[in-house]
Structures are given as C-alpha cells and as structure tokens.
Amino acid sequence: MLQTRTEISTLLDSRRAGYSLPAEFYARQDIFEADMDVFFRRHWICVGLECDVPEPGDAQVIDVGQTSVILLRDDDNEIQVVHNVCRHRGSRLLDAGSTVISKLVCPYHQWTYELTGELIHAPHMGSDFDRSCHNLKPVHFKSIGGLIYVCLSDNPPADVQRLADTMEERLAPYDIGNAKVAYQSEVIERGNWKLTIENNRECYHCSANHPELCVSFIDLDFGFDPASLSEEDRAEAEEHQALYEERTRIWEEEGHKSAVVEGVVNCTTNFRTQRLIIAGAGESQTPDATAASNKLLGSMTRKDLGDTHLWGHNCWHHFMGDHAVISIIIPLSPDTTMVRTKWIVHKDAVEGVDYDIEKLTSVWVATTEQDAELVARAHSGVLDPAYEPGPYSRFTEQQLDNFATWYVDQMRENGY
C-alpha cells in the first residue's frame, strides 16, 4: 500500500498545470480504487431524488462500488438512507432496483427491520440479545431541493452546507421532491469516470457533435477565443455576452437567483450553478426549444426563466420551467462508467396528455449517446503509448483545468 501511495504521489507531482492528467489516472486499477475511496466514499455524491421513493414503503437500492445503500420512505413519510447490509451476518437485504416493502426482511434468516432501520425481530437469538445494538447502519445524507446526496464516510465534509444554502432557494420553485420521474435511462460509457466529467464540463465539442442540444444550448456560454472569430462573429459574441449580463440582471431583480456560484477549486465539495439562457424559442431543452410539458414544475408560472444548471463531481442537472434532467454517474471500473439520467415532470402531469415522452427525452437521449461515443474515443486514445497530456484551451476548457487541479488537491488531502 505504501508503495502504491508513493507511486500515485509521484504521478500527482507530474501533473502540469493547464494540461490534462497523465494516462495512468484514467487506466490504473489502483488509482481507480483510490478514486472510489476518496471521491465516492469520503465526498458527498448525488445518488437520487426524493421523488424516486414517492410513497411510504417505496425503496430503491443504489450501488456505489462495493457499497450498497437503500433509499426509502418510511411510514412517517420521511426519507431514510441505510446500508443494504443485514446486521446478522451481512447478507444483502434487497436486490438491485426499486421495490415496495412494509418491513425490511433479510431473506437469509428473517431478521426484520422497521423502515427506519430499527431491528424488531431476530429469531432464536436468546432472551439476553439486545436488538437495539443491531439496527441497520444509517448513511449520512442530505436532501437538497429534493436531490439526495450521501456521504459514505463517518466524517462527511462540512462545506456541503454552501451547496445546500445556495441550491435550496434556487430549486424551491421547481419542487423536485414532489415531482415524478417520467423516464429513466442508464448508459454504460466505455471510459474512465474523469473523462465523463471532463467531457461534460466543456462545450468546445458541442457544435460539432450535439446538433440536437445546440438548438437550445448556446456554446458561446462556455467560452470562445475572440481572436479566432471573424469580425461578424465577434460582434455576435459580444452582443450575446451583453444580453447575458442584462438578462441575468433582470432575473435577479425579479427575485430569480441566476448569477454564477461555484466551488471548483480550493474546496472539498465541488459544484457550480448558474441560470443559463435557452436559445431559440427559449423555453426548454427539446427539439424545438419549446416546453415539453404543459404542466410546469412546482410553483413555476413562466417558461422563459432559462435553465438552472448545477453540476458536482458525479452529476450534472438542468432545471427548466416544464421539466428537469438529472444525470448521475457511478464508476464501475477504470474503463467503464454508468450514466443514469432521469427526466422529471410535475407529479400530476400525464403522459400523452400533458407531455409527449419523445419530445421530453429525445435531446438528452441523443446527447448522452453521442457523449458516450466521445468518451470511449478519448479513453482509447489515452491508453495509446503515443498519448501525452495535452494543453487545455484557456478560453473554453478552464473548467477542465479547475477539475484536474481540484482532483490533485483532493488526492493530496487524503494522503496521496
């Protein structure tokens, strides 16, 4: 272990500011295991939504590496997150996926737990057995505007409070905790999780690879090199930047939090949020940029309030007046990453009446498939002996440099 840590430390030292990471960080099994320990056990990660378990007794199993947790709603309508490990001999309580239960009953020896995790039945353990010492182990979790974040460590980072303070107000009008999941997909990307995140944090590639998304997404929002633009394009970019400043000012004056808030370096909990302008019709991320659902989310009354975007180190989300797109990543191996995407609508919206599922989902279904191909190409390339870390664009890829810097810093802070 000491030798492994020394090798990883040496590789961390070799990372050059402004450049991508050395190939080993995308490929080695020991570094993948370190990533899972540092970034998916010791940090806060987004794993789901309150509306994944809308009714008492609803339960969903979420696996993160070797850890399995149960997200559930108890009989008092409260959210609980517990480890999916029986306190008898460690058997899994529930299988993967969603289910409805009245009690948590271990299929091995029938130890039985309340939905709060309290052990209430342990047959043949004797009169002196203290059930209260064998309740299910709880998981540290926070519901932030209806998003469920967990930390699998006993010492979760305290700075998650800044994320909570920022997003509770911004997400309140969407009432995500009281919405419903209209559709869910799981795409397996053939690449390292860091390549998945890096791909998401820049739009350098958007215009050439995401025609569906670019109907509503504005790639200029993610940076550009003024010197590379024609005089006409530069004038258009400057006009758009002025529009952004004006629109943000108006939104803020109207009480809609819109300005950038971020913690991407010199922090533990990594996040960024901003209200983005939607292009074209300006309503939603759909094939024609008009709203997909006639029934708006929560208390929303307007379709023209843009896209409140939020990302973390294992997720990215888009909240619009009519629906939200929630994307969560779970690393499966050094070269395999699962991207779980959920489309959220008002709880009373009816498919075929209030929304069309194809219009609702097609943009991000296509975008996720396109990104999966790009990540696979990138992963294949970093494994090639000819690969060496390349320079990030200071105009369009600053957030990638920030991510790599944060990654190195967090590895250092956790003993590597």
UniProtKB/TrEMBL annotation:
<keyword id="KW-0001">2Fe-2S</keyword>
<dbReference type="GO" id="GO:0016491">
    <property type="term" value="F:oxidoreductase activity"/>
</dbReference>
<keyword id="KW-0560">Oxidoreductase</keyword>
<keyword id="KW-0479">Metal-binding</keyword>
<dbReference type="Pfam" id="PF00355">
    <property type="entry name" value="Rieske"/>
</dbReference>
<dbReference type="InterPro" id="IPR001663">
    <property type="entry name" value="Rng_hydr_dOase-A"/>
</dbReference>
<keyword id="KW-0411">Iron-sulfur</keyword>
<dbReference type="InterPro" id="IPR017941">
    <property type="entry name" value="Rieske_2Fe-2S"/>
</dbReference>
<dbReference type="InterPro" id="IPR015879">
    <property type="entry name" value="Ring_hydroxy_dOase_asu_C_dom"/>
</dbReference>
<dbReference type="InterPro" id="IPR036922">
    <property type="entry name" value="Rieske_2Fe-2S_sf"/>
</dbReference>
<dbReference type="Pfam" id="PF00848">
    <property type="entry name" value="Ring_hydroxyl_A"/>
</dbReference>
<dbReference type="GO" id="GO:0005506">
    <property type="term" value="F:iron ion binding"/>
</dbReference>
<dbReference type="GO" id="GO:0051537">
    <property type="term" value="F:2 iron, 2 sulfur cluster binding"/>
</dbReference>
<keyword id="KW-0408">Iron</keyword>
<protein>
    <submittedName>
        <fullName>Rieske 2Fe-2S domain-containing protein</fullName>
    </submittedName>
</protein>
<feature type="domain" description="Rieske">
    <location>
        <begin position="44"/>
        <end position="150"/>
    </location>
</feature>
